[in-house]
Design goal:
single chain, 328 residues, alpha/beta, Isopropylmalate Dehydrogenase, 2 domains, 12-stranded mixed sheet
């Protein structure tokens, strides 16, 4: 059975999301895409960039996989867009594109969702509490816990906590939350990535993994007991390991994934190795969702000085995950 189309949300309209969608259309991947965005926005950005594009209405016939063609499920903006200058008035439009994609994935109209970057600050400026794509998708799919994982340069890095202030991280890492996170990571690596027995490296929270309690006791009181419990169920877990040496190539060679305790513990390493080609994956959702590994890059919107490598990688991974699910 042919794979259902993949939904692609264009993200913050004043950012590079619309530009990325247009660049992808120049040399489209071998998968049917439906871009969820304002059709006029795409046409105006194409004119600004000097890109020749045919915009087909979704539902008007076959979804073309042809250079210079995009199939668009139209959602209307609140107002006109100036590249590089986000307007909070358009924040609800951004969220509507996501909601449309989520509905389509839930009904299997779409096989997966790929997201271009949104601007969290602008959405909050509109009076809408918004932490990020990951949390929004969890809320809209009624998923109690999800896990953010990035892939790139042969690495997978998952996070025990996501967009939290550093001072709030220790309290957020409980035995219950850590066990749930590891169960999600292990399950999705098996079921979605086809790994029979995933090998997971788990970072400590504190410098040198706490130095036997002298630099913090979270490793002793929280992390180690959870790892011991899950090892008893057959999980292949190693740690808690000092984060400053965890990303040694020798260690990574024998691992399928790293679980970092917080956002900036693990992601700087992966992004240094793969920026522009990495992919963000949300684990634990009932739908497949991947995303680019970068932000809205407002200063580059409408300039043409961007690369769509990360978006192409995100689309390709979404396709692989959807095909694996369909064949399972």
């Amino acid at each position: 059975m042919p794979l259902k189309p993949i939904a692609l949300t264009a993200g913050e309209p004043a950012g590079i999301g619309p530009d990325l969608c247009l660049l992808v259309a120049r040399k489209p991947p071998e998968v049917r895409l439906v871009v969820i965005a304002d059709k006029r926005l795409l046409a105006e950005r194409a004119a600004a960039l000097g890109v020749s594009i045919v915009l087909k209405d979704y539902g008007s016939g076959d979804i073309a996989v042809a250079p210079g063609t995009l199939t668009v499920a139209h959602e209307s903006l609140a107002g006109r867009v100036t590249p590089g200058k986000p307007d909070p008035a358009n924040s609800r439009y951004v969220l509507r594109t996501l909601e449309r994609a989520i509905r389509g994935c839930a009904s299997r109209e779409f096989s997966a969702l790929v997201t271009a970057p949104v601007h969290k600050g602008v959405i909050n400026d509109a009076g809408i509490p918004f932490t990020g794509h990951t949390e929004f998708l969890a809320e809209k799919t009624a998923t109690r816990r999800v896990v953010m994982m990035l892939t790139g340069a042969g690495m997978r890095v998952a996070l025990a906590t996501t967009h939290l202030a550093l001072k709030d991280v220790p309290a957020a890492i409980t035995r219950e939350s850590l066990e749930e996170t590891l169960r999600i990571v292990e399950r999705d690596l098996r079921q979605r990535f086809g790994l029979a027995r995933p090998r997971i490296l788990v970072a400590g929270l504190n410098p040198h993994a706490g130095e036997s309690g002298h630099r913090g006791r979270e490793e002793i009181e929280v992390i180690a007991p959870v790892l011991e419990r899950l090892r008893g169920e057959g999980f292949d877990l190693r740690g808690p390991l000092p984060a400053d040496t965890l990303f040694n190539p020798e260690r990574l060679r024998d691992a399928d994934c790293v679980l970092a305790m917080y956002h900036d513990q693990g992601l700087p390493v992966l992004k240094h190795a793969s920026f522009g080609g990495g992919v963000n994956v949300t684990l634990g959702l009932p739908i497949i969702r991947t995303s680019v590994d970068h932000g809205t890059a407002l200063e580059l919107a409408g300039t043409g000085r961007i690369d769509c490598g990360s978006l192409l990688a995100a689309i390709d991974l979404a396709r692989q995950l959807a095909e694996h699910r369909q064949g399972a």
